[in-house]
Amino acid sequence: MVEIGGMPILWHIMQIYSAAGVNEFVVCLGYKSYMVKEYFVNYPLHRSDITVSLRDRAVSFHSNECEPWQITLVDTGEDTATGGRLKRVAKYLGNETFCMTYGDGVADIDIAQEIAFHKKQGKLATLAAVHPPGRFGAVEVDKKGTVQKFKEKAEGDDNWINAGFFVLEPKVLDYIEGDTTPWESIPLERLSKEHNLSAYRHMGFWMPMDSLRDKNRLEDLWKSGEAPWKVW
């Protein structure tokens, strides 16, 4: 619920998916789950013109500006691991391909393309892979000590890392034992060993919000009108 540009990062993430035509969401709640529930229950109220009849307590909505989202909010426990949360919402996912992501990162990723890539690969799981963003400026220096080139916030090394945007088949839920299973360990490792995990290489913008510094950077990008993840 940490805000970027006055809206929770959860809202930004949902907009990224909605831009690709994904409008049904299941949100795994934990710490202060009531805050998320109250936010979305009251969301239509705050986004619409309304008429209130005080005597009979009736509320009429006008010019509704809400997104066409259907959101299922599920309390999955405060201490449940990432895999365990996914397991707990299994009954809401149906028997079809679904997407999964965390609630702390944004990207200009084309979700529709990732889904198409996943289906073409024919594997049980696909993760979006990105080069880690650089934290510091990089300089190229010649033998005499003269700076030849300066690059602000250069990317990390040539490694690829998990960006947290997944496309999954329902069968992956069988790889999760229970509440204490982190999605990133046993399930992903097993899928990898079985050659059932694909990597969709995302070459564009991606940034997690792991610190106040990250939050401020995202806020600055949003205020500048040049937020790369604003694909809607």
Helix and strand arrangement:
Layout: E1 3-4, E2 7-8, H1 9-18, E3 24-29, H2 33-46, E4 49-53, E5 58-62, E6 70-75, H3 82-88, E7 98-101, E8 105-107, H4 111-121, E9 125-130, E10 138-141, E11 147-151, E12 161-168, H5 186-193, E13 197-201, E14 206-208, H6 212-223
Parallel strand pairs: 3-6, 9-13
Antiparallel strand pairs: 1-2, 4-5, 7-12, 8-14, 9-12, 10-11
How many domains would you count in the coordinates? Answer: 1
CATH topology, by name, is Spore Coat Polysaccharide Biosynthesis Protein SpsA, Chain A
**Gyration radius, rounded:** 21 Å
Extract low-pLDDT stretches.
none
CATH domain class? Alpha Beta
What can be said about this structure in brief?
By secondary structure, the chain is of the alpha+beta class. The chain has six helices and 14 strands.
Q: Can you give a write-up of this model?
A:
- It is a single chain.
- The protein is α+β, with helices and mostly antiparallel strands and 232 residues long.
- The protein has a single domain (3-223), classed as Spore Coat Polysaccharide Biosynthesis Protein SpsA, Chain A (Alpha-Beta Complex).
- 27% of the residues lie in helices and 28% in strands.
- It has six helices and 14 strands.
- It has helices at residues 9-18, 33-46, 82-88, 111-121, 186-193, 212-223; strands spanning 3-4, 7-8, 24-29, 49-53, 58-62, 70-75, 98-101, 105-107, 125-130, 138-141, 147-151, 161-168, 197-201, 206-208.
- The strands form six sheets. Strands 7-12-9-13 form a four-stranded mixed β-sheet.
- Strand 1 and strand 2 form a beta hairpin.
- The longest helix is centred in the N-terminal third of the chain and has 14 residues, at 33-46.
- It starts with a strand and ends in a 9-residue tail after the last helix.
